[in-house]
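Researcher: Quick sanity check before group meeting.
Model: Go ahead. Protein one:
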Amino acid sequence: MPTPTKLFELVHPRWLSLLVIGLCIGYAVTSLTRLPTWGLPLIAAIWMVPGAWFNWGAPRNQIRAPRRWPWSLLPIALWGLYIYLSESFGIVDLAAVFFHLQAGMADHGGISRIWAATGYTLSMAALLLSLTWLVRNDQRWRRGEPFLALVLLASNPLLYGVTQRGAAIVTDDGAWLDRQYVPPVILEAPEEPPNLLLLYLESIERTYADRERFGDAYADLDAIGEHGLVYEGVYQIDNTGWTMAGMIASQCGSPLMPAGLLHDRQFSPLEKVVPGVDCLGDLLSEQGYRLSYLGGASTAFAGKGIFYKDHGFDTVLGREDLQPLLDDPEYVNNWGLYDDSLYDFTLEEMRRLDEQPGPWGVVNLTIAGHAPRGYPAQRCIDRQGEFDGVDILYSVECSAWLARDFLERADAEGLLDNTVVIIASDHLTMRVSEWEQLIQGERDNTFMLLGPGIPVDRQTREASMVDVFPTILEAMGFTIDWHRAGLGVSLLSDEPTLIEEHSMTAINARMREERALQERLWDGLAPEPQTAPEEEQEKQDQVLENPVDATGEEPATVQ
């Protein structure tokens, strides 16, 4: 019977394998390029044409070979990981991956990404099985497959990033960035130090202010900026592109270069976060400030709680602390509290601190703009109408309006009378519904200041989030050494920033090649060097291949 025979041929492993490989190739191409998703089946169909023409999987002169696993299984799996990260976040940041593995990913809110990862895993398993069947049943593929493995390894950006970081270990001069680092020191404090309110708006970059592309989504933040100082051109350098990295850059004046091999227990949880440098909290606590951090997500995720507790903050509150205090404890999302609830708790904390003598500082981290679609609060839904669950501009508008509403409520209670207010995005957004529009041109972070003594103005500077740290200090009236703190330069001064002097490309290149600044950040986490017996040390000191290797001030004699 011909019909059953034809159906049997269509479901034959040969055609199933070719189809799976073709669909995976189509998905990879459409994910990594700007081709529309409808191009996926077209690419798969194009792939099937040579498969049928050359009879892949069913050669005429079949040569049986012992069963073996293809060389390219691991390279393909690594490419699958890269595509998953690219599809999830838009930009693959290896530093972020390494940091989160070490700092901890407990209580994260990426439930939707878990389901996506499951789908990716199943797809990758089908792809690897299909390729294995093809290699085992077609000697032509068996002969060429090792070369395919080499090509896949050589072309994977994921491995390229790893090898660049590894090259930093043997670089000749790995301390240029560290030499630019200025330890933050307060030389003089104002007679009446102002309070500080620092609002991080998750992923709400200033790029959204372009009304031609994004309409009025950013309008409420523009309205806030009309009463303060707005900076344009605060770009994102490497190692500042995720929440903890953005907060550390703007509070410590340094990119967050993960501990990596400096951490003696590798991927066991970190007990300290950047213990080798002083940050905003350290300096303010020394000046008598009472400091509080409030965030909707868990403080256990990515070491947030550890960072703030170890850097001068008295009160650190996250999901695990605030959710039980909600009128409706079920009013939470995957990550934690919605922003309307978080702002209510933040207002309560400001009232509490303001009732006591002495200056205070409050840091708040929102969540409404979190990729890929955001978490708009119920108050926004009541105001804006139903959320479609996809449009990030809805969530951007929600985040901006809630921030404006919160500031108006705090101002009405007199809590901002002697308070410097900083509004900043923690980092540029990752892949969202408006991704193609966002990457059409240069992107920059939100950064604006309001408060006593701060002019109403709009300025453009080539800067990065490390420049936020010294700018905050000077906006609060503190005098700092050379207008610098960490790698940052106060934008209130005329001093050039690192990007203005050396370009963002040059700074990023240095970060990929150097280790000294990384060692400074994580000073104390590296394993203590073992001291050799005195006699053995004397023998070792006598044999040095190069005078540069000597540790003393006088050059060693070449033996």
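Researcher: Fine. The other one?
Model: Protein two, sequence then structure:
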Amino acid sequence: MRKFTFPCLLRHRISILSGTGALTTTARLSSLPLTSTTVTELSQQPISSEILLESIKSSQWHFVEQLTNSLTPSLVSTTLLNLVKSPDLALDFVNRIDLRRFDFPTQCLAIAVVSKLSSPKPTLQLLKQVLSSTSSSSSGKNSTSVRDIFDEMVLARDQLETKSTILFDFLVRCYCQLKMVDEAIECFYMMKEKGFDPKIENCNCILSLLSRLNRTESSWVFYADMFRMKIKSNLYTYNIMINVLCKEGKLKKAKEVLGIMESFGVKPNIVTYNTLVQGYSLRGRVEGARMVIKEMKSKGFKPDLQTYNPILSWMCNEGRASEVLKEMKEIGLVPDSVSYNILIRGCSNNGDLETAFAYRDEMVKEGITPTFYTYNTLIHGLFMENKIEAAEILIKEIREKGIELDSVTYNILINGYCQHGDAKKAFALHDEMVTDGIQPTQFTYTSLIYVLCRRKKMKEADELFEKVVGKGMKPDLVMINALMDGHCATGNMDRAFLLLKEMDNMRFDPDDVTYNCLMRGLCGEGKFEEARELMGEMKRRGVKPDHISYNTLISGYSKKGDTKHAFMVRDEMLSLGFNPTLLTYNALLKGLSKNREGEIAEELLREMKNDGITPNESTYCSVIEAKSNLDQTAEKSDT
């Protein structure tokens, strides 16, 4: 067989354009394999849309890929328009040439052509690629506005000469999948502006995302616009809005919506009732949840695990899980992995690890494989109860089963060792985490910085903090507070206040923990007036002092022996509705002890008991010392 070179191919192209030999040329081109020499020769010559189209139709993808760098937006667009009736081939073509290399109009045209496929998945994938690249920088020069994207999609739609609005439906859905809800809403209003009727499915997509993002107020604004536009709600719409009301704690109104939807001829489904049950359960209103279950039964719906799991979760916190389990079993419901994880979490949080592990064993016996959540909950519970060896045995068990640790497990372990001051094991796990290809998170670094501060290794803590910032990871408030507390504890107040300035530069608002750290550091240096002034600044910045703030000042003044100011702070604390704690009384008693004010100390002890606060050893020691000092003073005056 003779080599099929470019001149030969060109002659055949001429015959095709002239209308002769079209069938034979097509047949020969599709049947003849392209050698590497042929491909090289072809890729070095100007390519027409006819040659490119023929190559696509004959599935000569190796040749198409070789041409990628030579393709122009105009050539790609012409080819795409010729593939409108073959969107599957258009998709294959687009996937071979890396669409991101081409200009925005070409990308939009490709998406428009591919949108003709029966499956929405390829279109949404292409849209995500394009939207991610065009909005890679919200403030950068290359960013593209929603208006630009929408207008370009309109032009692409016009090129296809179609009246379908499915392209814009996909655009809204894509924004929602990317959690870009404001952009989705903007696109929705542009559709209305152009006279395109938005589908209720798009509205539900936006409402659902607003609900998941807990933007309940925005949900109602959007829902009101839907009503004004006379977009008729369906069952899914009502379920979303019932969920929004439950999140807001407006359970009575949520029940009223159930009646409204039925009056409009929309029958509720089991999701409607389960949403209400969850709403009542999350607020601890179990009897209300049971009333909903009773109503759903009367309407012919059988409660399922999604009905009972929220009730089970709340009752676990109350230590009454057995009641719900009994009720579930009576109607034939067998707990699933979610149910068991709820039980295990509840027991672990209450410190009942024996029962937690019993549920794990029962779970396995029922043929349900424990999930990462199961193991992570148990490991966390063991660390909370200071059972480090048992946690290590469980980790060994997980590894022996061939289960690779995930980021949550690593973070639980690292935080657990950090809380117990074992920096060596914590950092070893960090290194293992990186080796396994799992990226450390803010939580990881906060735990590591905490343990370094706890061991007074402030130089290393600062270096790790700078490393985090240098990697482009924005530190959070908890991380900065941990580092600041370390510097305050070691007396480096200059560095602590420098961190406060850095927080302002990073646009972080300091919280009560931030100021409490700084006040404690100032009191430790005997700078009580500066600490008092800092409380004033705290109030001016809209941060409310808490009982820790006041106790810090009281403790500082008492150590100095300035009981007058200590009691003044206590009185201010009381006037704001803060009840004194054991720490408050012990701090005041230490000041009275230092000043040998035994009578006032005894009076304060009586007040403490009347407030229902049980004195501890430190309390009695301070009172005894105050009275002892008083007796010594009396003896000296007698002599």
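Researcher: One line on it for the slide.
Model: The radius of gyration is 35 Å.
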